TrEMBL record:
<dbReference type="GO" id="GO:0046872">
    <property type="term" value="F:metal ion binding"/>
</dbReference>
<dbReference type="InterPro" id="IPR004294">
    <property type="entry name" value="Carotenoid_Oase"/>
</dbReference>
<keyword id="KW-0223">Dioxygenase</keyword>
<feature type="compositionally biased region" description="Low complexity">
    <location>
        <begin position="29"/>
        <end position="38"/>
    </location>
</feature>
<dbReference type="GO" id="GO:0016121">
    <property type="term" value="P:carotene catabolic process"/>
</dbReference>
<keyword id="KW-0560">Oxidoreductase</keyword>
<feature type="compositionally biased region" description="Pro residues">
    <location>
        <begin position="17"/>
        <end position="28"/>
    </location>
</feature>
<keyword id="KW-0479">Metal-binding</keyword>
<feature type="binding site">
    <location>
        <position position="610"/>
    </location>
    <ligand>
        <name>Fe cation</name>
    </ligand>
</feature>
<keyword id="KW-0408">Iron</keyword>
<protein>
    <recommendedName>
        <fullName>Carotenoid cleavage dioxygenase 7, chloroplastic</fullName>
    </recommendedName>
</protein>
<dbReference type="GO" id="GO:0045549">
    <property type="term" value="F:9-cis-epoxycarotenoid dioxygenase activity"/>
</dbReference>
<dbReference type="GO" id="GO:0009570">
    <property type="term" value="C:chloroplast stroma"/>
</dbReference>
<comment type="similarity">
    <text>Belongs to the carotenoid oxygenase family.</text>
</comment>
<feature type="binding site">
    <location>
        <position position="323"/>
    </location>
    <ligand>
        <name>Fe cation</name>
    </ligand>
</feature>
<dbReference type="Pfam" id="PF03055">
    <property type="entry name" value="RPE65"/>
</dbReference>
<feature type="region of interest" description="Disordered">
    <location>
        <begin position="17"/>
        <end position="38"/>
    </location>
</feature>
Length: 641
């Protein structure tokens, strides 16, 4: 058995305090890390044979907190294509729980076998699935790497050895070819997951989605969303500036597409589902937009059979970086996170001495936040969409939970957007998750600012925009979404209410009870009532953390908060991962926990990014119950959250 070191684990703690008697978490690896075809649950073992559980009474100081933080980013090299039943350790699957699969994606690997580490955003996508059979009262777990082209190149299929050859936008190589390496963009398909039209996809911010077989999690291949689709070009303003930018774009394209092999279209990892119209909304921008003070966004709308219903292209004369966005009945909504080219950073990045992302930095030149209201339909009565509404607050928008609009009798329009934002002062491309590319280490202090600075960290806001009948902005205000001041992110709602007025928003937050990790990682699910501003919480407990929650509506409908919340719990204290089911109506009360399922220790996985709940359709139930089931059968389109 080959023991593989975990290069993310620090040699020295961040303080002068002595290390406690804590063994570092293991890097998990298959006992025979050979061929991908040998992926079975039985073939997996842990490289470190006897890792004792961490002492649950360990003092809550900076050192143990530092180690706890590393646990969330431990590589998991093992995969399991054969579903593994999870042990129920608390509660039970309740009557009426819908059967379906919770897919969760995120990075799985943070270090190779030749001395290179990567930023969590550059970690190869590791797709986890929790298949819930409510009738049988069981949950089956499986996990596999997305077999991207970069993964095929960087993992030796015969030996299981990893060697990073691509730099990735957030990392530098140490053991590989650093200088002159033009393999920059590494589509690791690690950011979000989508089930639509009976198909499953893993998405990444800078390239095509990868299609995955929903049951086996086997990678089907890269999926060209825009293949053969005619894109309706948006208006260009025809100014001299626009023409000069056209010339600059023509110069940059051969460099970006040819030398750096960047795809012309960058698909955003965040998509939207318009439940009312049963449509998938997805957005792309151009590769050269990263370097130009002009942003080209194309928004596609698909029906449930992946038939393209419409697409629109918008050229916005600003240098923006959009991660998440929103829609209403008649608008697409973009918050303008402003960026600028960093010349010095560009030089070192091109030479391979710093991550490519250091070519960009946030641009806090304005004290306001531009919000672009883009007309969704041809008959949308719109103001000049090139002119943004300026929100009276400088916000870097991370995620949006929902947006909706309501028309008054006199024709005025009221738009509200619920989003998580942080400050420009805090947001730093190179240091997200506390990753230091110079040392290859993770330092949680970046995510845990001192008392008084926590207002810079992510929190939830409600942006309210009032337009008169001619589209003139009468008012734009930004308020806290609820009475809750702790750092909070990953806002989600009952998707049955997406695009319409909702009352409740759920998110991941921090209880603040951990002295050395007061703000992140999150340990609390917060339920916010946007009407009353009341807030209720459920916390995991000592030395346990959570990821993004997902709301599952109650079968057959019901009130907005009738259903279940799924969230993964990372129990550092016992080195275990759990799937937790909560009752949203009982959050804030004593018995919100419905059930907790334990993932076997050898299948522990690192912190996930985004997930998706896919309810089992009637055709899938038929297939699953058939002894001669054919997994290649196409599935019906399913409801989505
Ligand atoms: Fe995201």
């Amino acid at each position: 058995m080959k023991a593989i070191s975990c290069h993310l684990l620090p040699i020295k703690p961040p303080t002068a305090a002595p290390l406690p008697r804590l063994l570092p978490p293991p890097t998990h690896s298959p006992s025979h890390p050979s061929k991908a075809t040998s992926i079975t649950s039985r073939a997996i073992s842990i490289s470190a044979p006897s890792i004792p559980a961490l002492d649950t009474n360990a003092s809550d100081d900076a050192v143990s907190a530092f180690w706890d933080y590393q646990f969330l980013f431990v590589s998991q090299r093992a995969e399991t294509a054969d579903p593994v039943p999870l042990r129920l350790v608390d509660g039970a699957l309740p009557h009426g729980f819908p059967s379906g699969t919770y897919y969760l994606t995120g990075p799985g690997l943070f270090s190779d076998d030749h001395g290179s580490t990567v930023h969590p955003l550059d970690g190869h996508g590791y797709l986890r699935s929790f298949r819930i059979d409510a009738a049988a009262g069981r949950v089956d777990f499986a996990a596999r790497y997305v077999e991207t082209e970069a993964q095929a190149e960087e993992r030796d299929r015969d030996t299981g050895e990893w060697r990073f050859t691509h730099r990735g936008p957030f990392s530098v190589l140490k053991g590989g070819n650093m200088v002159g390496n033009t393999k920059v963009m590494k589509n690791v398909a690690n950011t979000s997951v989508l089930r639509w039209g009976g198909r499953l996809f893993c998405l990444w911010e800078g390239g095509d989605p990868y299609e995955i077989e929903p049951r086996s999690l086997e990678t089907v291949g890269r999926f060209d969303l825009a293949a053969g689709k005619r894109i309706k070009a948006g208006d260009d303003d025809g100014t001299v500036r626009a023409k000069l930018l056209d010339v600059a774009a023509r110069v940059l394209k051969p460099l970006l597409y040819g030398v750096f092999k960047m795809p012309p279209k960058r698909w955003l990892s965040h998509y939207k589902i318009d439940v009312k119209r049963n449509r998938l909304l997805i957005m792309s921008c151009n590769a050269e937009d990263m370097l130009l003070p002009r942003s080209n966004f194309t928004i596609f709308e698909y029906d449930s059979n992946f038939k393209l219903l419409q697409s629109q292209e918008f050229n916005i004369p600003d240098h923006l970086m959009i991660h998440d966005w929103a829609f209403t009945d008649s608008h697409y909504i973009l918050f303008g996170n402003r960026i600028k080219l960093d010349i010095a950073g560009s030089m070192t990045a091109l030479c391979g001495f710093s991550p490519m992302i250091s070519a960009l930095s946030v641009n806090p030149s304005k004290t306001t936040c531009p919000i672009y209201l883009l007309p969704r339909f041809e008959d949308t009565k719109s103001r000049d969409w090139r002119v943004p509404i300026e929100a009276p607050s400088q916000m870097w928008v991370l995620h949006t939970g929902n947006a909706f609009e309501e028309k008054y009798e006199n024709g005025d329009l009221h738009i509200q957007i619920q989003a998580s934002t942080c400050s420009y002062q805090w947001f730093n491309f190179q240091k997200m998750f506390g990753y230091d590319w110079q040392t290859g280490k993770l330092d949680p202090s970046m995510m845990n600012l001192k008392r008084g600075q926590e207002t810079l960290l992510p929190h939830l806001v409600n942006v309210s925009i009032k337009l008169d009948v001619d589209g003139n902005c009468q008012d734009c205000s930004v308020d806290n979404l609820a009475e809750w001041s702790k750092p909070t992110d990953f806002p989600v709602i009952n998707q049955e209410f997406s695009g319409g007025r909702n009352t409740y928003v759920y998110a991941a937050s921090s209880s603040g009870s951990r002295q050395a990790l007061p703000h992140f990682p999150f340990d609390t699910v917060v339920k916010m009532n946007t009407a009353t501003k009341a807030t209720h919480t459920w916390s995991t407990g000592r030395r346990r953390f959570i990821g993004e929650p997902v709301f599952i509506p109650k079968a057959g409908g019901g009130g907005e908060d009738e259903g279940f919340l799924l969230v993964v719990e990372y129990a550092v204290s016992t080195q275990r991962c759990y799937l937790v089911i909560l009752d949203p109506k009982l959050i804030g009360k004593r018995n919100a926990l419905v059930a907790r399922f334990e993932v076997p220790r050898h299948l522990n996985f690192p912190l996930g990014f985004h997930g998706f709940w896919a309810q089992t359709s009637s055709s899938e139930r038929h297939v699953a119950s058939s002894p001669t089931r054919n997994l290649e059968l196409s599935h019906e389109c399913i409801g989505a959250t």
